[in-house]
Write a structure and sequence with these properties.
The structure holds two protein chains of two kinds. Chain A is built from three helices and four strands, in the order H-H-E-E-H-E-E. Chain A is of the alpha+beta class. In chain A, strands 1-2 form a two-stranded antiparallel sheet. In chain A, strands 3-4 form a two-stranded antiparallel sheet. In chain A, a hairpin with a 5-residue loop joins strand 1 and strand 2. Chain A is globular and about 30 Å long. The N terminus of chain A is likely disordered. By secondary structure, chain B is an alpha+beta fold. Chain B has 14 helices and 17 strands. Chain B has a five-stranded mixed sheet, sandwiched between helices. In chain B, helix 3 links the parallel strand 2 and strand 3. The radius of gyration of chain B is 46 Å and the shape is elongated. The N and C termini of chain B lie far apart (135 Å). The C terminus of chain B is likely disordered. The chains are: A alpha+beta, B alpha+beta. At the A-B interface, helix 1, helix 2 and helix 3 of A face helix 3, strand 4 and helix 4 of B.
Chain lengths: 104, 575
């Protein structure tokens, strides 16, 4: 089985999980402003991804990078929890590469 | 013909207009650039100012609560805000503090608390079981404020998590009742400031940890007990304790000695915590001259040290000096003086009484003779004791000298044993000498060695019961002669044997029943001065053997030897 997520829904779910987590951690204002720096992602008022365009993996990495600019330490402490729920994603955080669990 | 200049004029006008428009646009772009640069500079300047403020206020604090509060108070005037709060996590307690910059209702404050806690729980889900402690502070200066509507809730907010050395320690939340109150630029500016403050705090923590390690290493090697307490208001915290202090207080080296346990060991009569707070309050050191802990005595020094008094944090060092030995010696010295006075007064009283009777002139011849004997014996006893005291003093001062000449040790032993036989028989004790004819004449101080044997046999006679036996034997062993005085007396307990040759033996009730008790101390000095050795072999109930050796040194033709001053005994004795 291919570990790479393939469906748009999966990407949406993953990105929604990331964004909604940081909605709570950082607050909605800064989260919305941070996500808006990555082009091609459209989110609702509650942080749900409505649509996105472009390479999903790249967009995930870009979103994580933008949140890391706010606090890399916090992203480091929290992102693993999301990766565990969504198999097949790879994230580079500083010099470290984090990978989600193998898909069953 | 007229059309040409008109066309030219129109073209020229367009050209000039175009240039003018271009210049205006360029100028506008330039102005925008300048404006952006200016904003960037102001932003940086702000950042530097706030960071300077934070670093000057943080000082050497290592409490995350005070760090968070410092950050909060430094940035509260940068934004239009309703509340600014922080939550810190330590020891399974989440402490929340909210500063109201506008009057907010209870509902608003509850919402702020929920925002803070939601963020904390999201970063570290384990904290959901922690206790929450909440405080609030109003900072509204104006009296003419219009109270916020009861149903008003935060419309804009953002939260900055605090992470120090990869440990999540709290959050700061800024809220406003107005929607879209904060620009992205403002928010990221604050994230940047907090991030740099975290780095500064990590550095400070590193320095503090490093200094603590250095301090711990430094004081761990001190033989005195050393402790450093930090006093924060009425709270006394133990910062460092060295192994000597742990040992003195009855803790094991690996034990985690907490402040209350350490303070508890000093007991209610001392109340160390109160003394520490008192030392800080009065900024004055104090000494407890004699604190008894179990069977030991200690001198306790309590001294305040400058730490961070501006913030109400002070340090106090408490050091313990073990004075048990000193105390014991003091008691021994005191008893020794009493003993000397008693020992000298006793024969003196006899002399005084006997001479008074003699001067009365009413005694019969037999009684007069008896009184004269009392005077003679008492004065001899006094003289012996005074000589002992003088010898001991000489030994201590390093002025004791021996005069060695070729002599026969067998003769010395035999003569001394013979001299004791009369006294021994009166006590129903037998004394015998076992001589060794293979021992040649060799160099030793005949008078002083005789003094040693006299002393040893005399001690044996005091402690050997009737029907007992004392043997003084001489034996050649390679290059030394070994003399043994063995008795069938009461013996000496092992724990008291070590004290036997010290100056105040008698006081310790180790050996001597009467006299100054300096005999064995002087004997050791004499034997050491010869380069020999003296020791004991004793068992309670079975008897005692005191053995000593003298090196066999044969004198050369003395006339050919260079004339030398006698060797000060102390030079060998003290080695």
């Amino acid at each position: 089985m291919n570990n790479q997520p393939t469906t748009n829904d999966q990407h949406k779910q993953f990105l929604t999980a990331v964004i909604q987590k940081y909605y709570i951690v950082f607050g909605p204002d800064i989260t919305r402003a941070t996500v808006s720096k990555v082009s091609g992602i459209d989110i609702s008022a509650v942080g749900e991804v409505k649509s996105f365009h472009g390479d999903a993996q790249k967009q995930v990495q870009s979103v994580i990078k933008e949140f890391s600019n706010l606090s890399q330490a916090v992203v480091h402490l929290t992102v693993q929890d999301i990766l565990e729920r969504f198999p097949g994603y790879k994230i580079t955080l500083g010099s470290e590469q984090l990978t989600s669990a193998i898909q069953i | 013909m007229i059309e040409q200049p008109i066309i030219l004029l129109v073209v020229l006008s367009f050209l000039i207009g175009g240039i003018a428009i271009y210049l205006v646009i360029r100028d506008q772009e330039h102005r925008l650039q300048l404006e952006q640069q200016k904003r960037e500079i102001i932003r940086k300047y702000y950042e530097v100012l706030v960071l300077q403020d934070i670093s000057s206020k943080i000082g050497y604090s290592f409490d995350i609560g005070s760090i968070a509060e410092t950050i909060v108070l430094s940035v509260e005037n940068l934004f239009n805000l309703s509340t600014i709060s922080y939550a810190t996590i330590a020891n399974e307690v989440i402490k929340i503090k909210t500063f109201q910059k506008e009057p907010v209702a209870q509902k608003y404050e509850s919402a702020v608390k929920n925002i803070l806690l939601a963020s904390v729980y999201e970063v570290n889900p384990l904290t959901t079981s922690y206790r929450v402690h909440e405080t609030s502070e109003q900072q509204i200066v104006s009296k003419n404020y219009i109270s916020m509507h009861q149903d008003m809730l935060p419309k804009s907010y953002f939260t900055i998590p605090l992470v120090v050395n990869n440990v999540f320690v709290g959050v700061i939340t800024i809220t406003s009742h107005k929607p879209r109150a904060y620009s992205h630029e403002d928010m990221t500016l604050l994230y940047g400031i907090v991030s740099q403050a975290e780095v500064a705090f990590e550095r400070i923590q590193g320095v503090i940890e490093n200094e603590k390690e250095k301090l711990a290493a430094l004081i761990s090697g001190i033989p005195s007990g050393a402790m450093l307490f930090v006093v924060d208001g009425e709270t006394v915290r133990l910062e460092t304790i060295n192994s000597s202090a742990k040992k003195f207080l009855g803790f094991k080296d690996q034990d985690d000695a907490e402040a209350f346990r350490v303070i508890g060991r000093f007991g209610v009569s001392v109340q160390l915590d109160k003394l520490i707070i008192e030392a800080v309050r009065d900024q004055k050191g104090m000494i407890l001259k004699d604190m008894k802990l179990d069977a030991k005595h200690f001198k306790v020094f309590i001294n305040p040290i400058p730490f961070n008094p501006e913030k109400g944090i002070n340090g106090v060092t408490v050091s313990l000096e073990d004075t048990t030995m000193e105390k014991e010696l003091e008691e021994i010295r005191e008893s020794f003086t009493n003993m000397v006075v008693h020992e000298l007064r006793s024969p003196m009283t006899s002399i005084k009484g006997a001479s008074a009777l003699l001067l009365g002139g009413k005694l019969a011849d037999e009684e007069r003779m008896k009184m004269l004997h009392i005077v003679k014996d008492s004065s001899e006893r006094m003289l012996t004791q005074i000589n002992d005291l003088l010898d001991a003093a000489k030994l201590q001062a390093g002025k004791f000298q021996i005069l060695q000449e070729n002599s026969n040790i067998n003769e010395v032993v035999e003569m001394r044993v013979e001299a004791f036989k009369f006294l021994a028989e009166s006590k129903k004790i037998t004394v015998e000498a076992k001589l060794d004819s293979s021992v040649p004449e060799f160099k030793f101080d005949k008078v002083r060695v005789d003094q040693v044997i006299t002393n040893l046999v005399s001690n044996s006679l005091k402690f050997t019961p009737e029907e007992g036996h004392i043997t003084v034997s001489v034996e050649k062993k390679d290059t030394v002669v070994q003399i043994t005085v063995a008795d069938t007396g009461i013996g000496i307990p092992e724990e008291k044997q070590a004290m036997l040759f010290s100056k105040y033996t008698q006081v310790q009730n180790v050996f001597s029943k009467e006299g100054t008790g300096l005999g064995l101390f002087i004997s050791r000095g004499i034997i050491d001065s010869h380069g020999g050795r003296i020791w004991i072999d004793s068992e309670v109930g079975k008897g005692t053997k005191i053995l000593f050796t003298l090196p066999i040194t044969i004198a050369q033709d003395e006339e050919n030897l260079p004339v030398q001053d006698p060797v000060p005994a102390s030079q060998q004795f003290l080695n």
